[in-house]
Amino acid sequence: MANAFFSDLLATISERGRTLLRRGDPSVARQDSSELLELCEALLSGRGEASATALARDVLDRYHDLDPAHRLTFFEALARDFGPDREKLSQAIESWRSQPNDSDASNLHFASEPRRQELIRRLNRAPGGTSDLVAMRADLLALMKGNKDLAALDRDVVHLLSSWFNRGFLVLRRIDWSTPANILEQIIRYEAVHEIRDWNDLRRRIDPVDRRCYAFFHPQLNDEPLIFVEVALTETIPTAIAPLLAAERQPVPIERARTAVFYSISNTQKGLGGISFGSFLIKQVAEELRRELPKLDTFITLSPVPGFMQWVKKGDDVPLTDEERTLLEALDRPDWFEDAELTAQLRAVIEPLAAHYFLKARTSKGRLIDSVARFHIGNGARLEKIDWLGDLSPKGLRESASVMVNYLYRLEDIEKNHEAYANQGEIAASSAVKKLLKTEGRRLLDMRLS
C-alpha cells in the first residue's frame, strides 16, 4: 500500500512538473532528436527532485514519439557526446600518475564514467522509467546491427540493467490457471520453443497435477514476466516432445513422479538480451520442486538443437562423405521418418554427427555453435543423451532433423561442470554420448580403409 501510494504521488508530481515545463518552453512540442538531446543536457545539469523526475518522464515520452531514424540519431549522439568529462578525466589521470593512492584511484574511476550512465540513472527515476529503458534498449539492439559506434552505449546500458536486474531483485512466482489473464497472455505470446496454440493448449501445460510453470518477475515490471520455464513431472526421462504435449495424454500421478523435465525456457524482454536469468531460474525451480516433492531425483531438460542442420549444410568441419551427403538429401522429404529403412540409415549418420557437433565443432571464436547448448553447458549441466526422432514438428525437422537432447542438472555437480567448461572448455557429457563420437571415429576409419 505504501509503495503504491508513493508511486501515485510521484506520478502526480511528475505530471504537474511536466505541465509547468511545457508552459515555460513552447518549443518542447518539436518531436526531433536535437530537442530531446537538449532535454537530456538539462536533466544532467541538476534540478530539484520533483522537476528532475518530471523532466525524466518527459524525455522518455519524447523518445517514444521519435521515428526509427531520429532514434538512431539520438543513440549516436549519446555514444558520441555523452562520454566522460575529458577535463575531469585528464586531471584525475595526472593526479594518479603523480602520486598513486586509493583516493586518486577512486577519483579516476568516477571521472572515467560516461555521462550517459548518469543520464540513464536519472531517467530510471521517472515513473515507469525502468520499463521504458528496457524497451529503449530493445530499440538500440535493433539499430546496432552494422553500427559498431553504438557498442559503447550498449555496454553502458547493459552495465546498469545488469545491476538493476540482478538475482537479488528477482521474484520467483508459479504460473497457474489462477494467474491474472494479462500474464497468461504473455506466456502464450512469448513461448519461443513449442508454440502455445490457444488457451486450451496453455491450460494443458500449467493446470494438470503433473505440470508446472515458473517465472521471474521484477518489482518495477510487476505484471511482466522476464523469463519463464515450463516443467513436466514424469516417471522416467522422456526422449520425445510430442508425448509431453499431447492433448489426450494421461497425467502422471504426482506420487509416481521421479523426474522434473524442463522442456521450454523463454525470455520475454528483448531489451534484457545478454543479461542471463535462466541459470538462476532452473536452479531455483529445481530447489522449489525438491522441497515440494522430495521423491524427485532427476532434473533434466528436453531441449531443441536449433543450429544443427545449419551447421550440417554450411559448416567447414562436418565429417561427411559424399555418399552420406547424398543420403542426407532425403531429409528434404517431409515424410522421410515414415520410411523405417531410410530412418535407420539416416540415424547411423546423424547421431554421430550430433555428437561431433556438441563435443568437437566450434565457432571461429572457439564457442559451442548451438545457443541452447551454450546456455545449458555453461550453466553446469551434463549432455546426457541425444534423442533421435525427438521432435517431428516442421520446425524440429527443419532445424535439427528431428534431434533433441537431454541436459542433466545434477545439483551437486553443477558448479564443477560449470568451472570445467568456463576454465578449460571441457563439456560434461555422458558415456552414451561419448560412445557415439567414438563410433563416428571408427566409421571414418573404415571409410578410409575401404
UniProtKB/TrEMBL annotation:
Residues 82-165 form the Malonyl-CoA decarboxylase N-terminal domain. Pfam families: MCD, MCD_N. Gene3D superfamilies: Malonyl-CoA decarboxylase, catalytic domain, Malonyl-CoA decarboxylase, oligemerization domain. Residues 168-409 form the Malonyl-CoA decarboxylase C-terminal domain. InterPro entries: Malonyl_CoA_deC, Malonyl_CoA_deC_C, Malonyl_CoA_deC_C_sf, MCD_N, MCD_N_sf. One of its GO terms (biological process) is fatty acid biosynthetic process. GO terms for molecular function: malonyl-CoA decarboxylase activity. It comes from the Bacteria. This is MCD, Malonyl-CoA decarboxylase MCD.
